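Design a sequence for this backbone.
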């Protein structure tokens, strides 16, 4: 329960609208439409003023916004560089306040406290690939990121020569449930360098497999994963038409609104040659689409 929800419930409980020790309940019959849910009837009732309830709700919303701003106040502005910068036109990556990285075993050592102090708010960490590859640095990166206060999510690199069900099971086997984690990620892109799988399924097959993978993980972890993809894959497969899905889009030479016309995005990967304090060598850098308050709401 968020602090604002607690405050709201406390306020309306006083007025008798939230239940608790001030009311007595007895089980009623199961609903025919919801057989697993027991309904309750109150043997004592209270009348709450609608104006008072409205005031409590308004106060809780204001409190939530204030708490979100307070929690993000310690996040410094990004202090990054780029070894091969793009000449951005229009809205630039640094116009977005919430930044993060994505990493794998190629980043062997990270000073997470230094990265956090430079403005890294989140990290997507590679966990698995296909149905039998696990990133050896996943656990180390995950644990260190959490100690430094960097929010993390795990990502799976999709392999077109294994079924979606196999790959979902492999990811679940390697990524434990964690209430503090961000939604995890399905990375779907053409792998032009694969020596073991040259298959390029149709857009219809891709979307069907993505849905299967996302559904399995959503049932297991309780949140629908994000889909990461690239301009050519997005164009070739129509994956952007998946409903109810947040997208993380790669676009290193233009704003996503230009590269993915009409496409919605939650995260934007804007460089693969980023320079971040505490990380040796180039690293991918990303932005979240909203402001700090919306980040806190989305992430939690």
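Sequence:
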């Amino acid at each position: 329960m968020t602090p604002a929800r607690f405050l709201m419930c406390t306020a309306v409980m006083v007025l008798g609208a939230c239940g608790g020790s001030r009311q007595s309940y007895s089980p009623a019959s199961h609903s025919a439409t919801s057989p697993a849910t027991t309904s309750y009837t109150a043997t004592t009732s209270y009348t709450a003023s609608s104006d008072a309830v409205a005031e409590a709700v308004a106060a809780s919303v204001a409190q939530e916004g204030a708490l979100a701003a307070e929690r993000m106040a310690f996040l410094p502005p990004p202090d990054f560089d780029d070894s091969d910068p793009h000449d951005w036109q229009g809205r630039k990556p640094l116009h977005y306040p919430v930044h993060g990285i994505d990493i794998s075993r190629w980043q062997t050592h990270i000073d997470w406290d230094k990265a956090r102090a430079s403005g890294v708010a989140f990290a997507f960490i590679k966990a698995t690939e296909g149905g039998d590859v696990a990133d050896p640095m996943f656990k180390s990166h995950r644990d260190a990121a959490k100690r430094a206060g960097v929010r993390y999510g795990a990502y799976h690199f999709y392999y077109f020569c294994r079924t979606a069900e196999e790959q979902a099971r492999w990811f679940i086997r390697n990524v434990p449930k964690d209430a503090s984690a961000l939604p995890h990620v399905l990375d779907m892109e053409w792998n032009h360098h694969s020596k073991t799988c040259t298959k390029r399924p149709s857009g219809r097959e891709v979307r069907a497999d993505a849905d299967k993978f996302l559904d399995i993980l959503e049932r297991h972890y309780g949140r629908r994963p994000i889909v990461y993809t690239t301009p050519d894959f997005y164009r070739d497969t129509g994956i952007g038409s998946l409903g109810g899905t947040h997208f993380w889009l790669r676009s290193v030479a233009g704003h996503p609104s230009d590269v993915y016309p009409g496409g919605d995005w939650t995260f934007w990967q804007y460089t693969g040659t980023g320079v971040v304090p505490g990380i040796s060598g180039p690293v991918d850098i990303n932005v979240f689409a909203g402001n700090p308050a919306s980040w806190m709401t989305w992430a939690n």
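The radius of gyration is 23 Å.
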